[in-house]
What we know:
- With 283 residues, chain A is mostly helical.
- Chain A has eleven helices and no strands.
- Chain A has a single domain (43-278), classed as Orthogonal Bundle (MetI-like fold).
- The longest helix of chain A has 35 residues, at 3-37.
- Chain A is globular, with a radius of gyration of 22 Å.
- With 253 residues, chain B is α/β, with parallel strands linked by helices.
- Chain B has a domain at 1-87 and 216-253: P-loop containing nucleotide triphosphate hydrolases (Rossmann fold).
- Chain B contains ten helices and ten strands.
- Chain B has helices at 45-52, 82-87, 103-113, 119-132, 136-139, 152-164, 182-195, 208-214, 232-237, 242-249, and strands spanning 5-16, 19-30, 34-38, 62-70, 73-74, 89-92, 170-174, 200-204, 217-222, 225-231.
- The two termini of chain B are 29 Å apart.
- Adenosine-5'-diphosphate binds next to β2 and α1 of chain B.
Amino acid sequence: MSRRNIEENVFKGLMVVSTLIILSTLVLILATVTVKGLPALNLAMITQTPKGGYYLGKEGGVLNAIVGSLYLAGGATLLAISISLVVVLYLNVYAKKDSHLAAFTRFSFDVLWGIPSIVYGAFGFTIMIFFGLRTSLLAGIIAVSLLILPIMSRAMDEVIRMVPEELFDASYALGATRLETAFKVIARQALPGILTAVLVAFGRGIGDAASVIFTAGFTDSIPYSLFRPAATLPLAIFFQLGTPIPEVQDRAYASALILTVIILIISVVSRILTKKFTKHIVK
Amino acid sequence: MEFKTHISVQNLDVFYGTERALKDITVDIPDKKITVIIGPSGCGKTTLLKSFNRLVDSMDEVKVSGKVFLDGENIFDPKVEITHIRKKMGLLSQKPFPLPMSIYDNVAYGPRIHGIRDKKELGRIVEHYLKQSSLWDEVKDRLHAPASRLSLGQQQRLCLARGLAVEPEIILGDEPTSALDPKSSQRIEQRFLELKREYTIVIVTHILRQAMRLADYVVFLYLGELIEHGPAEDILVDPKEEMTKEYIKGIIS
Ligand SMILES: Nc1ncnc2c1ncn2[C@@H]1O[C@H](COP(=O)(O)OP(=O)(O)O)[C@@H](O)[C@H]1O
Ligand SMILES: [Mg+2]
């Protein structure tokens, strides 16, 4: 075998190994959560809130955390979308390519991306104290939206930057304004990528515990107001896993399973939507 | 041949940063004729075309001086509404770029942004211009299919229909057939020959044969300078300038 053939085979081998590592991690996590969580999962888990003594093994469920997490991640995602989309369309449609402001904004996103989520939590908490606010769904939404904003914006920026110059020109040549071009053509062309960005950000938001622990707090009831504390699945998992009682620890795995299923559903739906919107893309 | 002027370019200079892409261009583009801009690549043909509808504005680091008069109005006058200028010209680019929407919506895009909302009216416009660009028969049963599914040749005719739908006076084409197969190119050329009765047409091409087939008037650029311009039969058959002679003989390309 020639040297180049050997190189080729070594590289192929490395690829197989790397792929296997990724796949087996995914399978192992899913398996652990399913094997440990499924037996503890029952209808009560997803239809009831914790009753007295739930954390000691009495009945109830984590409906408070399911609803809280959906509200929180949903709200934070909506808030982050409205900011990201405007910023990113501004960067790509209005700002000049060599603009210092644009370069600085992109740099900021990179820095913000790297900041650990506990820092966002602490930052949110400081602001809350400053304004005399208590832990609430709203505070949690704001902290989580700050956490996912750089992720979403950076990902959207990448896809919108790929839109060919000629597509802008095609729209301008018809007498369209920048605003019309941005929303009717560019956002549409980048829609599959934007959707992916949104879902990645949603997944990050719904799974994060550190940013909500001080801001959204925790409660055993379903949140009914933006100004009341809200439970979240990651914290529910944390609290249940922290008890010394085995049945409650199993419920932590069941909760993790619920969280995983939510994320899986979102991913599948996003794949389908992305497919649906990809047909219009011009290359 | 007598020409009535439609676009009058006066001392036009365009800089990309410090690079001077167009040098003191002065030329009159005749009304309701096909003007063909020829010249080797990189000589500023696209830049000249994009100056007409002020697409050069959308690029960074571009400086323009001089004047371009359209209907007696200098299009580089700061008071001029840029969307209004652009609405007067349809643009065909080198490679067709349909908008990321259906065939119908592509044609209706322009009329919609210019305020036409009535469904019947839009339907009529779409049909009319698809027919004018001889695409109607091929797409009438799938108007709501994505435009991206059309062949390149069909896409270019769609872009023509899309441009015509905003009721321009001028059609600009930047090597509009260079991405197309011979059959599709021929169809586009045929369209141009028919459309020149109603529109002023300016086309960039590097295909000399195409210039011969289409041109009423020829503008020859070389390294950003206007070397020679005049009626097609003069420039293409009996050029005055040495440079033009060499280009037409294929010595410089
Ligand atoms: N966006 C741009 N930025 C900088 N230089 C450019 C840009 N577009 C064109 N140029 C330069 O301007 C000159 C003319 O280009 P162009 O008008 O595209 O020529 P042509 O269409 O005849 O090939 C070339 O030297 C090219 O490198
Ligand atoms: Mg060119």
